[in-house]
Amino acid sequence: MKKYLFLFVLLVCGCSDKPADVPQLFPCKVIVTKDMVPVEGVHTVLGLINDSSQCAVFGITNSSGIATIRTSRLGWQDNGAPIGEYIVTISKEPKLEGGLSTEEYQKLDPIKQEHYQLEQQRKYDALPREIPVDLSDVTKSPYRLVVTKEGENVLNIDIKTNKNTPKPFNDFLE
């Protein structure tokens, strides 16, 4: 009976074996601060330069601004990153507060739903960005990390204050 319970637990947990084509992983962290204050909830993606392994290498910063990097492939994932040179991108989407509940939105006729969506998108686009949008673009990110067998494999990123204040529409007409 215990044998079957153990097998059931393994199946329910979704445990999967490490794919054969995933290289050895080494501990890796990215630390994100803004004016030396930790930033929580930053999505960190490491893109291996000249990579063919098709692994996802990523992390999300905790309240201390630390993203413990993980590697994922075909449903399997573990802490660490393969050896190599990475382009590092970071992003954090702002949160739009308020708005209609799902029930309230569904009660609107389709035209009002479309107007509501456009208005919400306008409000979202006007929100200040804690992390500059360019830093989420692999072609514009200045951040690099080389992961090795030895060493700390840590990248410290300090973001300076980004004031994203869009111009009023009338300013574009001048």
Write a compact overview of the structure shown.
The chain is an alpha+beta fold and 174 residues long.
Instruction: Give average pLDDT, whole number.
Output: 82
By CATH, the superfamily of the largest domain comes out as Immunoglobulins
Number of domains: 2
- Let me know the number of strands: 12
Please tell me what the overall shape is: globular
Spatial ordering of strands, largest sheet: 8-7-5-4-10-11
CATH class of the largest domain, please? Mainly Beta
User: Which structural category do the helix and sheet elements fall into?
Assistant: alpha+beta
What's the main sheet like?
6 strands, antiparallel
Helix count equals: 3
**How much is the radius of gyration in Å?**
21 Å
Helix content: 10-25%
Strand content: 25-35%
Distance between the termini: 78 Å
The arrangement of helices and strands along the chain is HEEEEEEEEEEHHEE
CATH topology of the largest domain: Immunoglobulin-like
Q: Which spans have pLDDT < 50 for at least 5 consecutive residues?
A: 1-14, 161-174
Return the CATH architecture of the largest domain: Sandwich
